[in-house]
């Protein structure tokens, strides 16, 4: 048994692909920048002491250093189960976690929006629709024009033009995957509340953008080289209980593989291998077919990934908004960059529509350094 396990581990390690090497390029000329987008996901459990979360500190510094900054929080804004009811004992901590992210906007002077994730929908439980609406109300009450989009638990798309050169199209991707109550045709008040209506509305939102760069934002990625994309390493097979608690290093050789194998087979709607997730991706592919957006940006996977050649021209995964809360990742076909590291992404959009991507990796002291850069067009 031991020999078998060691042999399997050696094979698993040997098949892992290496990260794509970064290629530095010159910075975008500051005088020509129309707006700078910052994309950060899964930031909903910041460190407990004020101003002590390294990723949020680095984001605040970066956003304050540019003239026109716009931050998109890509879902899972409140771990573990979104915004509880005001009478629950967990409410103060949930408010603290969300307030820490709101403070980045207030202190840096940046504008921004939040999009919902599965954890914001009560960790995709039956009470999710109520939880996401509670979060929407809390964000709106904070003032300064910050909103959660799409609102009301609606799937979207919600359209927001910023500056002269960018159109943000926000989606609530958990709507597609949610098994509990949600707004749906024929009883909802959402502008689009069926799969076909969402596809049609997405096409219109993109086609009517004119010369603006279209950036579609949601929580769930188009593809990923991490666990949500069906890619597991030997630690996931040997120590499966770490999926419940990161400190549970209890080896379960052979039988421990049941968990990652079940994930690969689509047991969870939160994974790309599931039927519901696949149907959502097929719908987005149809919506993007006539005019692919420049960027589709998501969180969900706790890593930093850049892909070319998906249904969007570039698919970004920026779900590493909590320092040290990262997942294993590997390179796939189309991967331009992949790293298991904490940080966020920056997109400088020039007035002529050109866009420069920078992937920012953050250390424990809250210092961000650019690990990868690319002109997107």
Provide a descriptive summary of the structure in words.
This protein has helices at residues 2-14, 54-64, 91-108, 128-141, 174-177, 195-207, 234-238, 258-264, 275-288, and strands at residues 33-40, 69-73, 111-114, 147-148, 158-162, 166-170, 213-217, 295-298, 304-308, 314-318, 335-339, 343-350, 355-362, 368-375. With 377 residues, it is α/β, with parallel strands linked by helices. It has a single domain (31-220, 294-375), classed as Purple Acid Phosphatase, chain A, domain 2. The protein has a 7-stranded mixed sheet. A 7-stranded mixed sheet has the order 5-6-7-8-10-9-11, with helices on one face. Strand 12 and strand 13 form a beta hairpin. It is globular. Mean pLDDT is 88; it is low at 1-18.
Annotate the secondary structure layout.
Blueprint: H1 2-14, E1 33-40, H2 54-64, E2 69-73, H3 91-108, E3 111-114, H4 128-141, E4 147-148, E5 158-162, E6 166-170, H5 174-177, H6 195-207, E7 213-217, H7 234-238, H8 258-264, H9 275-288, E8 295-298, E9 304-308, E10 314-318, E11 335-339, E12 343-350, E13 355-362, E14 368-375
Parallel strand pairs: 1-2, 2-3, 3-4, 6-7, 7-8, 8-10
Antiparallel strand pairs: 1-12, 5-6, 9-10, 9-11, 12-13, 13-14
Helix pairs in contact: 2-3, 6-9
Q: What is the assembly state of the chains in this entry? A: single chain
Based on secondary structure, the structural category is: alpha/beta
* Euclidean distance between termini CA atoms: 53 Å
- Total strand segments: 14
Q: Main β-sheet, in a few words?
A: 7 strands, mixed
CATH topology: Purple Acid Phosphatase, chain A, domain 2
As for the number of domains, it is 1
CATH architecture: 4-Layer Sandwich
Helices and strands, in N-to-C order?
Answer: HEHEHEHEEEHHEHHHEEEEEEE
Specify the CATH class: Alpha Beta
The CATH homologous superfamily is called: Metallo-dependent phosphatases
Low-confidence stretches: 1-18
Radius of gyration computed on alpha carbons: 20 Å
Which shape, going by the Cα principal axes? globular
Query: Per DSSP, what share of the residues sits in E-state strands of 2 or more residues?
Result: 15-25%
Order of neighbouring strands in the sheet with most strands: 4-3-2-1-12-13-14
Instruction: Give average pLDDT, whole number.
Output: 88
Helix content: 25-40%
Q: Count of DSSP helices?
A: 9
